[in-house]
Specification:
It contains 3 helices and 5 strands. By secondary structure, the chain is α+β, with helices and mostly antiparallel strands. The relative contact order is 0.20.
Length: 173
């Protein structure tokens, strides 16, 4: 905010302690901090990281996203009906996959660069909690990404630790 005219130091004699000059008059207002990327979207794109994420997930699916809805501080991802491939089924039932709706908790306001463009496919990993499918990680499917190809190819032979299910607040199986 500018210094008010009635307090302009030019109106007073210099060096009489009646005026306090502007200390930081030329500085610009600080910009608000940029929102932190959603936790589901900040995952490492290295094969080991992807495979460990697969281990800690109940399900892994390759899909196309038809639409995204934001409500109650979360995002709901609605999958395209025909374009999905279940890579790890876990506790999913047929009714869960019929009309696949995935929930991104606490992701209503944070940026998710992967979802800026909905064209193409996505690799989504998550957990089933209380009948809802919660997204733990989402990656843009890149055919030429060697790390992703390697992770998907060897996901079933990867030695998942018994400790992974305890991450993300899940109960042991």
């Amino acid at each position: 905010f500018p210094w008010p005219d009635m307090l302009n130091c030019n109106k007073f004699p210099f060096d009489n302690d009646l005026c306090i000059s502007v200390q930081f008059g030329n500085s610009q207002a600080t910009q608000p901090p940029v929102s932190k990327i959603c936790t589901q979207c900040e995952m490492e794109h290295k094969a080991d990281g992807i495979m460990e994420q697969m281990c800690s997930s109940d399900f892994v699916v390759k899909l196309r996203i038809k639409e995204i809805k934001k409500e109650n501080g979360e995002r709901r991802l609605v999958a395209a009906q025909k374009k999905k491939k279940l890579l790890k089924v876990g506790p999913l039932k047929r009714k869960d996959t019929k009309k696949l709706v995935l929930h991104m908790k606490n992701a209503g306001a944070c940026p998710c660069p992967q979802l800026d463009d909905l064209s193409g496919s996505f690799l989504v990993m998550g957990r089933k909690v209380g009948g809802r499918l919660l997204v733990l990680a989402i990656y843009r499917w890149e055919k030429k990404n060697k790390e992703m190809k390697f992770a998907v190819k060897f996901m079933f032979s990867y030695p998942c630790s018994m400790h992974y299910p305890f991450f993300y607040g899940a109960e042991p199986h």
